[in-house]
Structures are given as structure tokens and as C-alpha cells.
Design a protein that fits this description.
A hairpin with a 4-residue loop joins strand 3 and strand 4. This protein has a 3-stranded antiparallel beta sheet with strand order 3-4-5. The protein has a two-stranded antiparallel ribbon with strand order 1-2. The protein is built from 6 helices and 5 strands. By secondary structure, the chain is of the alpha+beta class. The longest helix is centred in the middle third of the chain and has 32 residues.
């Protein structure tokens, strides 16, 4: 499944990156463990997320048709990254008692990642940064985004429940 997802992922050359992700990619792995002595089921979910990068269009030295396509891609990428950032900021504000509502439904990505962003999880972000001075704006923007992600605070607990089908069979 991972190879299939990687095959259909949108990738194209940009001025910053020869194989730049032009779409976000989420790979979710659901894991279930069962204790046969106690009939307790433990569940877990692992989301691997590749966020498409947003590069500054004005830096691109491309023709009109290619620039229009890149602008359109960048518009959608920036919009979804903005929605993700809004959710992260809202979760931080909620943890500090300054907000009640978290806008998960603004995008499909934040809806899918709802349980991982503000739920029972441990969140890790790995940010790719460029050391080239010509990419300074993008590097600073990415570092600031990663810093905001660092502020996520979640309550961790084990996801366990009894398998009622087995419990009923034992009666």
C-alpha cells in the first residue's frame, strides 16, 4: 500500500527541489494487539504525513503556463498548510483556556489527523530545512511552523477495550 501511495503521489520539479511533493500524503497504519488471557484489545494508529512544501512562486524562473500551474498548486498547498496551522494554534489556545472550538473540519487533512493532532497521541515533526542562503525565507518559515507544532500538548492514555464477542462466548 505504501508503494502504491508513493506511485500516485504528485511530484514535480521546482526551482528548489527536483522531486518536490506537490500534494500532501498521509499513510495510516492501524495496529491491534490482543491479550488472550484477559480478552483485552489494545489499539493504536500511526500516521506518517508528508506535507507538500510551499515555495515562493516569484523565485521561479519559468514560462507563463508553468507559472500558472505552479501558482495554482501553491495556492492549494498554502491553503491546507494554513488550515493545519490554524488547528495547531487553536489547540494551543484551548490548552491554555483561551479557546473552546478547534476548526478541524476546515480541511480534509485536519479532519483525518484530528485524533493525532489534539487527541491521545504523541506527535513528532521532522522538518527539512535548506542551508542555501537563497532559501532563507522558506527555511525560517518552516522552522517557525515546526516551533508552533512543538507547542502541541496531548493527554496520553492506552486505548484498551474488552472484546465483548469473546466475553459473551465464555458465558
Amino acid at each position: 500500500m505504501l508503494m502504491t501511495g508513493n506511485f500516485i503521489r504528485q511530484v514535480s520539479a521546482t526551482p528548489m527541489n527536483q522531486n518536490s511533493s506537490r500534494s500532501h500524503c498521509i499513510f495510516t497504519l492501524a495496529i491491534e494487539g490482543r491479550n488472550h488471557l484477559t480478552d483485552v484489545i489494545s489499539t493504536s494508529k500511526l500516521h506518517l504525513v508528508d506535507l507538500a512544501g510551499s515555495e515562493r512562486i516569484y523565485k521561479a524562473n519559468v514560462g507563463d503556463k508553468a507559472a500558472a500551474s505552479m501558482r495554482n498548486e501553491a495556492k492549494y498547498i498554502n491553503k491546507s498548510l494554513s488550515f493545519l496551522e490554524q488547528v495547531i494554534i487553536a489547540l494551543h489556545d484551548k490548552a491554555n483556556g483561551r479557546r473552546v472550538h478547534v476548526p478541524y473540519r476546515n480541511s480534509m487533512m485536519t479532519s483525518i489527523l484530528r485524533d493525532s493532532l489534539g487527541g491521545n497521541c504523541r506527535t513528532v515533526m521532522i522538518a527539512n530545512l535548506s542551508t542555501d542562503i537563497s532559501n532563507e525565507e522558506e527555511t525560517i518559515s518552516t522552522a517557525r511552523f515546526a516551533h508552533r507544532c512543538q507547542k502541541l500538548v496531548n493527554q496520553l492514555y492506552r486505548n484498551v477495550h474488552l472484546d465483548m464477542n469473546i466475553c459473551m462466548q465464555k458465558l
